[in-house]
Amino acid sequence: MAGGAAGEAQCLSYTGCNFLRQRLVLATLSGRPLKIRKIRAKEEDPGLRDFEASFIRLIDKVTNGSRIEINQTGTTLYYQPGLLYGGLLEHDCSPSRGIGYYLESLLCLAPFMKHPLKIVLRGVTNDQVDPSVDVLKATALPLLKKFGIDGESLEIKINRRGMPPKGGGEILFSCPVRKVLQPVQFTDPGKIKRIRGTAYSVRVSPQMANRMVESARGILNKFLPDIYIYTDHMKGVNSGKSPGFGLCLTAETINGTVLSAELASSPQGQGAAVLPEELGQNCAKLLLEEVYRGGCVDSTNQSLALLLMTLGQRDVSKVLLGPLSPYTVEFLRHLRSFFQIMFKIETKTTEEEHMGGEKVLMTCVGIGFCNLSKTIR
Amino acid sequence: LEADESNRNGFQHSKAKKADSVRHTKVKTVDTEDDDVENLLKEEEEYEEKIDLSADTTGALKWKEDLTQKAAEAFLRQQRSTPNLRKLVYGTAVEDEDQESEDADDELGGLFRVSRPDKASKQKANALDCSKFLVEKPQDWDLEEVMSSIRDCFVTGKWEDDK
Q1: For the segment A185-219, what is each residue's pLDDT rounded down to a tens digit?
Q2: Rounded to an integer, what distance in angstroms lies between the CA atom of residue A37 and that of residue A14?
Q3: Interchain proximity B154–A288, CB inside 8 Å
Q4: Which domains does chain A carry?
Q5: What is the least distance, in Å, from the CA of A260 to any CA of chain B?
């Protein structure tokens, strides 16, 4: 097949299961086929895990005409991307990873669909590993708005909460489509004006949430008086299948930057039990760490911001970040392989003493990505 | 010159046991007697050598050897680790690819493959895929100094004059 041969020439090859999501996302956006070998090849239980299989199925759902080949042991994956289609969908996420694992990638893909994406995801809404749905709702959506992805239909709604190990949560994510993205100049985060948060508890005493709020406030009040932490106790069918509690905190600046931190209780029957007071305090301290890192984008959303800058119009985009996370560093390398784009990276030492750690200024010229499959009405 | 002389005497005295090295110094100092500064420098060098010798003989205090050199190396290491970020991000990717092509040569006699224990890079290749940036060394936020390091990030902190 001639088409296959042409695809073969520009096929990118990687080893190992790490960074699977960003590779699949970038392959889909760039239209380049991808081959990943040696997925857990030397482990006792080789090959793709259930959550990765679930992720691949999700990618298959939101696209049209993708070709996915996995070998018998699951150690090699070949992916030839189709077109991003979108529409009304639903997906059962594997409960071994949070919904955030899946949602992060959907946030990257959703603006470039043919039809606006409206998807129901079921699984674990809050866990100890992945960014929770609450945090993504509070941080990623404002970030998308900055790039011109805006409108009433942009929303994340938590219908049911689900904690690990059994999950049982449900969310709705909908996102409008855009033909082109605006370039951004986002170099001054501004000062933090307020701290908001959500203390949630499911299938445990609702008092847990109040205890977390008290202890977190105790630490944060030393910096700022404007703190409000909502308590969210879901009951009955809305509380999922496993007990648990946790806290998400966000710090909002006058320029619309949102920094976040979160912690969740250990899954039932795993790990040491955590006191809600302790969790509240530790979470507040994590938020202070995030403030210390600083920048205009929260550390979990660095890669989303860099992707949207890359895909912007042919114009200069600038964004000030805190220290680059290992995930972001790898993402930058992947952006170079898939889109031949390199960022200008400058370290900025803060002149003033009380403004946290070193910052990084990222500059690039967008590749002028155009969503050709968007239907014009 | 007198001061220099006395200095040298003291020196001689302290190193009476190591006659050889002292004679060496003496010869050197005599040669370049016209330049005091140079003298002093030379003596300093000799002094270091003396420490080396004593360390060798006693066997103890080995860590004192080449202290300056060690400090210099540590400094350079630090310099290299603090960032040329661009090099850090884009420079190392090429090396990774090289390693990848290398492990095709791990075959023995064309039939058997050498199964090497997982290297750090291999570990990374199959590590947990997570975007969270974990805090490795949490600071003690109960301390006043640590708290003041982010004081001006809040609206309650100090503002620049132009705002």
Answers
A1: 999 999 999 999 999 999 999 999 999 999 999 99
A2: 6
A3: no
A4: 1-83 (3.30.110), 192-293 (3.30.360.20), 297-365 (3.30.1370)
A5: 11
